[in-house]
Amino acid sequence: MAHPDVVVSVRSGNSGQVLKMVLDGEVDFGLARSLHHPEVETISLRDDPLIFVGHPAHPAMAHRKIHLEDAEALPVISYDRGSSDWTLTNGLFRRAGLIPNIVLEVETIEACKRMVLRKLGLAFLPQISVVEELRRGRLLPLEITDAESLRRSLDVIIPRRRPLSRSALELVKSLRAATHAVLDTGHKAKRRAG
């Protein structure tokens, strides 16, 4: 380890909760998706698309490409109602005059992924959260051919009025490098699966 004297503590929450932790000084910096606020500086780590995924044994996965109208009837598992991911997913259907068939709502991305792995439905999940499952073939992408891809930024948010320590700055730099490496691996896995 480069800095054995540094202790890293990780707290989780949705983007709004992470912003509050940063603004309140509870954490040095946060990771959030597509978040902008006048009191924080935003550093983009990587574009992180939402991928429509399902378990290989789920009946819907018999077709690897579908139209959005066909996706409307598929069982969709949703997470974190009101989040940017939830808004993007629902907006995709609503702009086409469709309503997604939400069969289950859970609180977190990880819980949503577990439900998809149990074949309970399909989900739009951040690519970074399913890299390993795509690589191992535990999940497969389902391409919606007539809809725009859902994309948002994975960002580091830093308070403008409180400078980061040298160790924290180095950790942000390491996160940027690691995020690029993980997502590059995910692109390769997605191409192999597709």
Can you lay out the helices and strands and say which pair or pack?
Elements: H1 15-23, E1 30-33, E2 40-54, E3 65-66, H2 68-71, E4 75-79, H3 84-95, E5 101-106, H4 109-117, E6 123-126, H5 127-136, E7 140-141, E8 143-144, E9 150-159, H6 166-193
Parallel strand pairs: 3-8, 4-5
Antiparallel strand pairs: 1-9, 2-6, 2-7, 2-9
Helix pairs in contact: 5-6
Walkthrough of the structure:
- With 194 residues, the protein is an alpha/beta fold.
- It folds into two domains: 15-46 and 152-193, Periplasmic binding protein-like II (D-Maltodextrin-Binding Protein, domain 2); 49-150, Periplasmic binding protein-like II (D-Maltodextrin-Binding Protein, domain 2), CATH 3.40.190.
- The protein is built from six helices and nine strands.
- It has helices at residues 15-23, 68-71, 84-95, 109-117, 127-136, 166-193, and strands at residues 30-33, 40-54, 65-66, 75-79, 101-106, 123-126, 140-141, 143-144, 150-159.
- α3 links the parallel β4 and β5.
- α5 packs across α6 (166-193).
- The termini are far apart.
Q: Work out the count of structural domains.
A: 2
Mean pLDDT: 86
Q: What would the CATH topology of the largest domain be? A: D-Maltodextrin-Binding Protein, domain 2
Distance separating the two termini: 37 Å
What is the CATH superfamily label of the largest domain?
Periplasmic binding protein-like II
> How many alpha or pi helices?
6
- The outline comes out as elongated
Helical residues, percent: 25-40%
